[in-house]
Amino acid sequence: xxxxxxxxxxxxxxxxxxxxxxEPIKLKNKExxxxxxxxxxxxxxxxxxxxxxxxxxYYKNLKEYLEQKLTVFVNTTVPSDPDITTxxxxxxxxxxxxxxxxxxxGGGSTMDATKIVSASLTNKKPISKMKxxxxxxxxxxxxxxxxxxxxxxxxxxxxAVISDKENxxxxxxxxxxxxxxYALLDPLTLESVSPFFTSTTGLDAxxxxxxxxxGKSNTKKTKKEAKEAIQLIFDNLYEAATTNDLIYxxxxxxxxxxxxxxxxxxxxxxxxxxxxxIAAYHHYxxxxxxxxxxxxxxxxxxxxxxxxxxxLTKELGYIExxxxxxxxxxxxxxxxxxxxxxxxxxxxxxxxxxxxxxDEMIKHCKNExxxxxxxxxxxxxxxxxxLYNTIGK
Length: 393
Known about the structure:
The chain has about 400 residues and is α/β, with parallel strands linked by helices. The protein contains 14 helices and nine strands. The protein has two domains: about 20-190, Rossmann fold (3-Layer(aba) Sandwich); about 195-390, Dehydroquinate synthase-like - alpha domain (Dehydroquinate synthase-like, alpha domain).
């Protein structure tokens, strides 16, 4: 079966190689945002976010500014783990209010929710039927994304992740139509983000960059974007999380964007699959899970990543050029563990999984990986079980 998975991934790689993915046009401020909306002749706007956003100065200023020229409807019900039931309620409300453009302002959860809402408004199919690759037939309703965290890169990716709580599932919807035409990247949105979420979302971006770099479907361009993102994150994340200096936060926003561009074509791997499987049952934040999992999974990949990570570590000057690839890879993993420690990220979760729970999560993980993630190597059930057992306390 592994051969069949690899053949499918190769076909997808060739498709991606020749398919031109658009990159969002980057807007710098609310003035440019309003100009675009007016030029598109849109009037009935849904400002979509989580509840925590409504009290931030940036959100209030943006809402008041847009209301001067547009009819703005507000929805702040997006949860940290967006689910089908919530999305369907937002879709119904958008239909009732005759929304013609959605602005999603928030972290990855809000941006993913915005994508799914927009797609649901034009595609007459349940969200469960959008799962997987290329299931969105019609262009989604116009939407613009404003990231308020530097990590998910959702503002430039083909993916949106959704939870099906009734069936304990968490899965991705992947389609180039989910890349927005415009994204507003303003480091001022990061001012209200806590040090913890700055840290975990930044480590999510690091996970994106690393998994894109070591996968089997990367190109010169995705490797370049991933490599640049990795360097930006190691250079800026600690200061972005521990100071109010916007220069570091702006660099992290750029790193997140570059990592997002990389995974759009090169995809992710086991860190994401395991993270999604855990979150389907135990609702930890995605970035936090990725931060804990990344060094563990890299160790389990072993020899399959020595050449790529070794070369990367030496080229970025993190270790001497005459070091072996194995030494360089171990040094890179140690750097991630040290960064986690410096940012007060625990090395374990505060729960212990049951045997039945682990079996279900392994099944979830393998189903996510097999066709769509061009991982460096496939991990055995025994290895996966060890990972789930050791990540708990």
